[in-house]
Amino acid sequence: MLASHDLNRSVEFYRSLGLRTFRDPGPDDVLIELEMRGGTHLVLVLDPGSKTQGRGAPFDLMVDDLEKTHASMRERGIEVSPVERPEGDHAFFTFHDPDDSVVTVNDSHVEGVV
């Protein structure tokens, strides 16, 4: 679950990353559920007074091609951190969503595995 100051803006942002909504948000909605790959759900909750600025989101995203995703997000004007490659762990980068929550994007480690 993630608090949002503006559900429509947040929904459009996460849709642009490839998540899908189960229904379009209406004017009276206070929460919207989005689906990530693998059936995991992100619930956005309207909370105009939330204090999420600069805090880590309670989830991360995992992608097959980290470099391509990083470049694509940067090309779309999303400010992304440099890719970090800790030894023995997932390579990752971060970005800030419209409510300034910090979201981590990890590589999947399974590319090419049968």
How would you describe what is shown here?
The chain is α/β, with parallel strands linked by helices and 114 residues long. 18% of the residues lie in helices and 31% in strands. It has helices at 7-16, 66-75; strands spanning 2-4, 20-21, 31-35, 41-46, 56-63, 92-96, 102-107. The strands form two sheets. The protein has a four-stranded mixed sheet, with helices on one face. The protein has a three-stranded mixed sheet with strand order 5-7-6. It starts with a strand and ends in a 7-residue tail after the last strand. The relative contact order is 0.22. The model has no long low-confidence stretch (mean pLDDT 83).
Brief overview:
The chain is 18% helix and 31% strand. The protein has helices spanning 7-16, 66-75, and strands at residues 2-4, 20-21, 31-35, 41-46, 56-63, 92-96, 102-107.
Strand arrangement, largest sheet?
1-4-3-2
Uncertain regions: pLDDT < 50 for 5+ in a row?
none
Amino-to-carboxy terminus distance: 33 Å
Radius of gyration computed on alpha carbons: 15 Å
As a percent range, the share of strand residues is 25-35%
Strand tally: 7
- Please give the largest β-sheet: 4 strands, mixed
The overall pLDDT, averaged over residues, is: 83
The succession of helices and strands, N to C, reads EHEEEEHEE
Characteristic key phrases:
114 residues; alpha/beta; four-stranded mixed β-sheet; three-stranded mixed β-sheet; 18% helix; 31% strand
Question: What does the secondary structure layout of this molecule look like, with pairings?
Answer:
Elements: E1 2-4, H1 7-16, E2 20-21, E3 31-35, E4 41-46, E5 56-63, H2 66-75, E6 92-96, E7 102-107
Parallel strand pairs: 1-4, 5-7
Antiparallel strand pairs: 2-3, 3-4, 6-7
